[in-house]
Amino acid sequence: MVLLELENIGYQIAGQTVLQQINLQVATQDYITITGPSGSGKSTLLRIIAGLLTRTSGQLLFAGKEWADYDPILYRRQVSYAVQQPQLFGTTVADNLRFPFQIRQQAFDSAQATAALTSVNLPADYLNKPVNDLSGGERQRVAILRNLLFPPQVLLLDEISTGLDDENKQILHREIRRMNQEKNVTILAVTHDNTEIKDANRLVKIVAGKMEVDQ
Amino acid sequence: MNLATSNTTLIFAALLVFVALYIGYREKLGMNKDILIGVVRAIIQLVVVGYLLKYVFRVNNVWLTLILILIIIFNAAYNASKRAAGIRHALPISLLAILASTGLTLVVLVFSGSIRFVPSQMIPISGMIASNSMVAIGLCYRNMNSSFRDRRQQVLERLALGADLRLASIDIVRESIRTGMAPTIDSAKTVGIVSLPGMMSGLIFAGVDPVHAIKYQILVTFMLLSATSIGSVIACYLAYQQFYNEQKQLL
């Protein structure tokens, strides 16, 4: 089933063309990696799909319905975007894991939060750990849990493993693959990482704002 | 009354301006023109206000008093909105915030019997409330602008997770309200120790018993706390929404 449809998506800002004529059909449970040189518009494309930017031309359909017809807040809970080098919120790990509950006006479920920590090889007592005491890899793992505590339909990953060591990369990939296979989460990942590209079932290459390869 | 200032004494006191001009000249500050403009404006504005107030106090008309209070509020709002540096709808937001903060505070003061509804009390008090509210709101705007710039990434991440605009901005809103209220709270802590503020100094000058004069200063402390908190809260809660577009994206 087609979950996301991009038809002739283009994005221009201040007279400059960042993206043009991007066409992409994404089926439920697809795992697509997007590569290309830096500055070719990959992050912009993810932000458009995430509803954080509005394309200047073309159409974006989610579950058969035009993006603009969704409530942007509820849409973003279904099409969740994880950034490169995320900033953690508040002072402790718990502050970050509480946030997804807060935005849904639900009581914080600490059992669910500790289970999530364990799923990315972090000890349960990390819940009260100050975020400033975390290593770079641990920060990234905590950050991705904010996207995964309530599994979205689509997960957009913007070079989340850049700069991490192999161990951290493996832990992240394992969890993302699990989400993809067990929770039917559709993945679109901008990456240069070869293991991630191997995990994917499709590879899209964007060069200078245009799609070059879709295989 | 021991009030001794007259036109003659003012001319001698004007020597003090020359002190400032001399420093400006010696240190090549390049602001002598500004000093002169400032002095001339102060004299003209105060002379006009002096005669205007004399007339208004003598006429003692409710509508005239209210119109003057509204003019004060509008001027305060206009000046606050100039500090908004690009925040959309800054004038109506400032107007609403200052109108509400000044209005509510005045109502409490009048109904508690603290001040009487006569122009000689209502107008100076309105000016004090509105100007403090104006400064507080200006500080709120400045903090909001710099926080939305510095923490853009964090706001974006909150939005990306599906937070509504309030939750995406709440830290910035709270911090901005704090920034707006902080000077009033600080000065409440040091009043009487560091400074003898205008209200109380004026009464003491006019020969009022200091023990009676401080009661007015206590009143001023209360009303400025109320005015700056109401003004800051309204301005911040309306202003943060202006940082987003209709698609709830960060501008």
Automatic annotation (TrEMBL), chain A:
GO molecular function: ATP binding
PROSITE patterns per UniProt: ABC_TRANSPORTER_1, ABC_TRANSPORTER_2
Top-level taxon of origin: Bacteria
Keywords: ATP-binding, Cell inner membrane, Cell membrane, Membrane, Nucleotide-binding, Phosphate transport, Translocase, Transport
Domain ABC transporter intervals: 4-215
PANTHER family linked: ABC TRANSPORTER I FAMILY MEMBER 17, IRON EXPORT ATP-BINDING PROTEIN FETA-RELATED
This protein's name: ATP-binding cassette domain-containing protein
Lineage of the species this protein comes from: Bacteria, Bacillati, Bacillota, Bacilli, Lactobacillales
Automatic annotation (TrEMBL), chain B:
Subcellular localization, as worded in the UniProt entry: Membrane
InterPro entries with a match to the protein in the record: UPF0014_fam
UniProt keyword list: Membrane, Transmembrane, Transmembrane helix
Family: Belongs to the UPF0014 family.
Taxonomy, superkingdom: Bacteria
Membrane topology: Multi-pass membrane protein
Protein's name according to its UniProt entry: ABC transporter permease
Entry's transmembrane regions: 6-23, 35-53, 59-78, 90-111, 123-141, 190-208, 214-240
